[in-house]
Specification:
Length: 290
């Protein structure tokens, strides 16, 4: 019961982070499900797709009303990411792709997201609002056929979405701005729509292959959505720049914790079970003793 309460409080924190920072919080869904709620890694990844997809869809609504969703680019880029997400999900259901491998890959992506977040928060003279200068840390593409690069990156982001359950907004936004020549505000709104599409495609790829606790998924989605409303309200009074650095270091700590929990993946023994949460490992031990 305590784990259930803590998990839902943390899920609300995901929404608050999304409302305050405009992204990033959804990457915490998998650790909450695995290490707090005791869900198997593969099931947690599938459930996180449902949570991230729903919250992103809700976040798309105000952007749509403001005209900040480019339907054409969402369809072009989204088609590539959806194909990748479906393929990534199918790849994840293969026997040789373990939950441990998925969690390790997830932790590596957390490190990348943390690096971008910390670096962005350290830029001088930057306001709390989202401006094009936010992308000065990304390498400028040198290409004659940027639409091809856009589709290629879309496939890559989609595969990662299907494999580990992250939305990929930290990669989609710069791709839309630098490769798709999209204004920043429009890129943010379009990115949320694409993340929703990715989540649907990923869920389709996992359908019938992985067990899902839909009741828990729904309750965590409600908690995260409620938190997003609170975060959007608090964003009027809190400067996002100061929160970004703290959130970045928090992601670093979480990534380190996940890698430590799955340290058996880097040795010849203990790899199959190192991806399990402590609660799940306890249940497995009881079954074996019996």
């Amino acid at each position: 019961m305590i784990a259930w309460i803590v998990g839902h409080i943390l899920a609300a924190g995901i929404g608050i982070s999304l409302g305050l920072l405009g992204g990033g919080g959804s990457i915490l869904a998998v650790p909450i499900l695995v290490y707090v709620m005791g869900v198997e890694p593969k099931s947690a990844i599938v459930m996180s797709l449902a949570i991230v997809g729903t919250v992103s869809l809700l976040g798309t609504i105000p952007h749509w009303k403001l005209g900040n969703v480019n339907v054409k680019k969402a369809a072009i880029f989204g088609s590539a990411t959806m194909l990748g997400a479906y393929g990534g999900a199918k790849l994840a259901t293969l026997p040789f792709v373990s939950g441990t491998f998925q969690l390790v890959l997830f932790a590596i992506l957390m490190l990348v997201a943390a690096g971008f977040t910390i670096r962005k928060s350290s830029q001088k003279g930057q306001s709390a609002s989202v401006e094009p200068d936010d992308l000065t840390m990304y390498p400028r593409p040198v290409c004659r056929y940027c639409w091809l690069w856009l589709l290629t990156e879309g496939l890559g982001v989609g595969v990662l979405t299907g494999l580990v359950g992250v939305g990929g907004g930290f990669a989609i936004v710069p791709a839309l701005v630098l490769l798709g020549k999209t204004p920043m505000k429009e890129a943010v709104g379009t990115s949320l729509a694409i993340i929703s599409l990715n989540s649907v495609a990923g869920l389709m790829g996992y359908f019938g292959e992985v067990a899902i606790d839909w009741r828990l998924t729904l309750s965590l989605t409600v908690a995260a959505s409620s938190g997003m409303v609170v975060g959007a309200y608090l964003s009027r009074f809190v400067q996002a720049k100061h929160l970004q650095k703290a959130f970045g270091y928090f992601l670093l700590a979480m990534a380190g914790f996940i890698l430590f929990q799955n340290r058996g993946a880097f040795s010849s023994t203990g790899a199959p079970e190192s991806g399990r949460s402590p609660a799940t490992q306890g249940r497995v031990a009881v079954v074996r003793k019996s």
